[in-house]
């Protein structure tokens, strides 16, 4: 409704109080693009409807819980579900830009909640598809073929959604390494890579 029927949200808002409750912060949430909320506010302004914004925590600042400093993050990117006719790859270019600048990247994994099929949407039927999340098994492979003493393979399944992914950049600070080490599967390897590959000055 927020994206396709925003005019209904503002209907009668000039004479009664209307609230739009969102997950996260109105300008920094992962579930709805912040541009959608900006558009609603601009529509309200054009109708001379007074507005008030109440900020909240969102993944855009809560990601600091992983130990990486927010000012070392570059552009946030979204990894969306591919369809037969839509396979956007712009996320790759944004990640590449961040990597070239040594910045961390927050990757938001797509969700599909209360979505209608194209047929139901075209026919005006309020029948919704089951919720879908990018929730898959992930396997990381390091130094494969280098022998069992060198290679490392880690398989993991994320828990319940929502999910985000952080790619660390080369500006990694030693305090970031120290803090995030608590989440490492192999702490010794985490510190070794931070020192040898990222160039962090560690004690």
Write a structural description.
The chain is an alpha+beta fold and about 200 residues long. Helices cover about 30% and strands about 15% of the residues. The strands form three sheets. Strands 1-2-7 form a three-stranded mixed beta sheet. A two-stranded antiparallel sheet has the order 3-4. The protein has a two-stranded antiparallel sheet with strand order 5-6. The mean pLDDT is about 85. It catalyses: 2-[(3S)-amino-3-carboxypropyl]-L-histidyl-[translation elongation factor 2] + 4 S-adenosyl-L-methionine = diphthine methyl ester-[translation elongation factor 2] + 4 S-adenosyl-L-homocysteine + 3 H(+). InterPro entries: 4pyrrol_Mease, 4pyrrol_Methylase_sf, 4pyrrole_Mease_sub1, 4pyrrole_Mease_sub2, Dphthn_synthase. Pfam families: TP_methylase.
Q: Unreliable segments (pLDDT under 50, ≥5 consecutive)?
A: none
The termini sit apart by 53 Å
> Structural class, from helix and strand content?
alpha+beta
Strand content: 5-15%
Q: How much helical structure, as a percent, in the residues?
A: 25-40%
Shape: globular
Order of helices and strands: HHHEHEEHEEEEHH
Largest β sheet strand count, sense and barrel closure: 3 strands, mixed
C-alpha Rg (nearest Å): 21 Å
Q: Give the beta-strand count.
A: 7
Provide a count of the helices: 7
Strand order, sheet with most strands: 1-2-7
Mean pLDDT: 86
Pathway: Protein modification; peptidyl-diphthamide biosynthesis
EC number: 2.1.1.314
Keywords: Methylation, Methyltransferase, S-adenosyl-L-methionine, Transferase
InterPro entries: 4pyrrol_Mease (IPR000878), 4pyrrol_Methylase_sf (IPR035996), 4pyrrole_Mease_sub1 (IPR014777), 4pyrrole_Mease_sub2 (IPR014776), Dphthn_synthase (IPR004551)
């Amino acid at each position: 409704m927020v994206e396709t029927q925003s005019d209904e949200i503002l209907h009668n808002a000039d004479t009664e109080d209307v609230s739009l409750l969102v997950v996260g912060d109105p300008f920094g949430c992962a579930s709805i693009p912040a541009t959608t909320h900006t558009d609603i506010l601009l529509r309200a302004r054009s109708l001379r409807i007074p507005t008030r914004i109440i900020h909240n925590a969102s993944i855009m600042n809560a990601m600091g819980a992983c130990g990486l400093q927010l000012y070392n993050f570059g552009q946030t990117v979204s990894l969306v579900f591919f369809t037969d006719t839509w396979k956007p790859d712009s996320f790759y270019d944004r990640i590449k830009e961040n990597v070239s600048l040594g910045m961390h990247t927050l990757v938001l994994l797509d969700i599909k909640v209360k979505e209608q099929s194209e047929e139901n949407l075209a026919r005006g039927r309020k029948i919704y598809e089951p919720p879908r999340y990018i929730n898959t098994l992930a396997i990381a492979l390091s130094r494969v073929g280098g022998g069992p003493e060198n290679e490392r393979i880690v398989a993991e399944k994320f828990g319940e959604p929502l999910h985000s992914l952080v790619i660390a950049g080369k500006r990694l600070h030693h305090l970031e390494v120290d803090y995030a080490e608590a989440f490492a599967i192999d702490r010794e390897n985490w510190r070794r890579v931070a020192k040898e590959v990222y160039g962090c000055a560690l004690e």
